[in-house]
Amino acid sequence: MIKTTLEKIMEIGGVKGVEAITKDGLVIEKLFYENETSDVLGAMVAKINREMEMTIGRSTDELPIFSTIYTDKHEVLFISKEKFIIVVLAEKNVNIGALIIQIKSVASLLQPHI
After folding, report:
1. CA–CA distance, 95 with 59 (Å, rounded to integer)
2. Taking the CB of residue 90, how many other CB atoms lie within 10 A of it?
């Protein structure tokens, strides 16, 4: 169920990978073209999310934290729900609007299953 739901994000052109992780950065499920990237990325996002929650308050299912990290080569988008985080690695030319809508939709679909 989780893998097939995450595949909806991979269908968007320019997406290089997606993973669902715990708040501690442990991988629940992942789909990446470059597998070695995902573990480091998940740990980094979990740490950033932890810092954000300490500063602005803990994310909940009703009020998730959504963030985008821009780099020279990629964009990292993540949504933090109460029990999990979805992390997406995308190319710079990705349709960011469509991707954000899809990430939010997938997070809502996964919410009862994680």
Report:
1. 26
2. 22
Query: Taking CA 70 as the corner, what is the angle to CA 55 and CA 50, rounded to the nearest 5 degrees?
Result: 25
Q: What are residue 59's phi and psi, to 5 degrees?
A: -75, 150
Look at the block and give the residue holding tokens 């999990």: 84
* Residue matched to tokens 């070695």: 36
**DSSP character at residue 83:** S
pLDDT tens per residue across span 7-25: 999 999 999 999 999 999 8
Q: How far is Cα 62 from Cα 108, in angstroms, rounded to an integer?
A: 10
Domains along the chain with CATH numbers = 2-113 (3.30.450.30)
pTM, two decimal places: 0.90
- pLDDT single digits (tens) 23-51: 998 999 999 887 667 778 889 999 999 99
Asked whether the beta carbons of 86 and 110 are under 8 A apart, the reply is: yes
